[in-house]
Amino acid sequence: MDPREPRSLPIIPLLACLQVSLAVCACQPATNDESADGGMPAPEVSTAQVEAATVARTSDLPGRLTATRIAEVRAQVSGIIRERTFEEGAMVRKGDVLFRIDPAAYQAEVDAKAAALDRTMATRVQALRQSERTETLLERQAASTAQHDIATATLRQAEADVASAKAQLALARINLDYATVRAPISGRIGRALVTEGALVGQNDATHLAVIQQIDPIFADFKQSAADPAPIPEQSAGKTGTPVQLLRADGKPQGTEGRLLFSDVSVDPGTGQVSLRATFPNPAATLLPGTYVRVRVSRGADAAAALVPAQAIQRSSAGEAQAYVVEEGGKVALRPLRTGPLTEAGWIVEEGLRPGETVVVEGFQKIQPGGTVRPSPWGTGRSAEASPNP
C-alpha cells in the first residue's frame, strides 16, 4: 500500500461504544427535583396559612373639619371705631372687649333719658299727693266723685310715664353698652375686617370679625346608603362609637374622637347619609375647612379569614384573587371577595377558609395548575399593612 494514501478509521467499533453509552444513561433514575413532564425542577415559593383571627372592622370616609360654633361679630350700633383691643388670630373668651365705638352720642342719650325719668317721677309724686288729698276731701264730702276720679287717673298716667321713662333709659344704656363690642363666644378670632376710624353700622350691622370655637372640633363626612356594611344604629351617638382622623400617610392622627350622630334621611341627589364626629383639639392644630379622612369603627369580626397583604393579586379587571396551594403541591388561582385591609393583613370574606395555604412570594415562577415546592414565608419580610383607602 502506498503510504501517501489516507488511512480510513474503523466505524463499527465507534457505533458500538455510542450505543452502550446511551443505554447506560437511559438506565439512570430521574432526580427528585425534575418534573415528570418537562424535566425542570418545581419552583420554590413562599407560602402562608390563612388564619382565623378576631379583626376590628373599620371604614375610612372622606370629610371636612368644621368649627363647633361660629359667631360673626357685628356692630349693633352705628359710630366710628375708636379702638381694636384684640390680637388677630388669638384665643378670646366670652365677654372680652374686641372693639370700642365712639360712645359720646350714646352717653348723651343716657343722660337725657335719665333726666326724663326724673321729671316723670316728680310728676308722679305730685299726682300721688293730689290723689291722696281728693280722697280725704271726698270722705269729708268736700270734693266730688268726679274730682277724685280725675286725680286717680292723673296718678295712673304719671306712673305709666315713669315706667316708659325707665324703659327708654334702659334702651339708651343698652345702646351705650353696644358701643363696646364684646366676644359673644369663646374661641379663636380671625383677622379684623375693619380698622380704627371706620364708620360702622350706619345702614346695617357691619361685619367686624369672626370667632370660631375649635376645641372640640367637628368632622362632617358622608357614607353611601348602599354600603353593605353600614355603621350600626346603636353607635350613632348612643354608645360613642370611636372614630379617628387619618394623616396623609394613612396613620391615625391625634387623639380618638367619637361619633355624634348620623342623619335621619338620605340625600336624594347623592344617595349618601351625613354623619358627624367630634374630636378634642386643645392645641388648635386642627383647623376648620381642612379635608380629612375619618376612620369609623364597625365592631369586630371574631372569625375573619386573614391573609398577608402580599398574597392578594389583582386581575386585569381589578378583581382580587390568590394562588392557593392544594394537595400534591398543585396551585390554583382562586377569585376572592375581600373586606378591608387592616394592619394584620387582608380580610377575605369569600373564597378562602382558615387553614388553607396561599402563595405570598414567587408569583412570577408559577402558573395555575402547576406544581410548586412551598416553603414557610417569613412575616418579618412583609410590608406593613396600611388602611384601605
TrEMBL record:
Residue intervals of the Multidrug resistance protein MdtA-like C-terminal permuted SH3 domain: 304-365
Coiled coil found in the keyword field: yes
GO molecular function: transmembrane transporter activity
One GO cellular component, as annotated: cell envelope
Coiled coil: 148-175
First and last residue of the signal peptide: 1-26
Region: Disordered, residue numbers: 365-389
Subcellular locations according to the entry: Cell envelope
Boundaries of every Multidrug resistance protein MdtA-like beta-barrel domain copy: 216-298
Predominant location category: other
Gene Ontology biological-process annotations: response to antibiotic
Domain Multidrug resistance protein MdtA-like barrel-sandwich hybrid: 69-212
Keyword entries, A-Z: Coiled coil, Signal
A Pfam family that the UniProt record links to this protein: Beta-barrel_RND
Keyword Signal applies: yes
Classification via PANTHER family: ACRA/E-RELATED COMPONENT OF DRUG EFFLUX TRANSPORTER, MULTIDRUG EFFLUX PUMP SUBUNIT ACRA-RELATED
Family, per entry: Belongs to the membrane fusion protein (MFP) (TC 8.A.1) family.
Protein's UniProt name: Multidrug efflux system
Taxonomic source organism: Methylorubrum extorquens (strain ATCC 14718 / DSM 1338 / JCM 2805 / NCIMB 9133 / AM1)
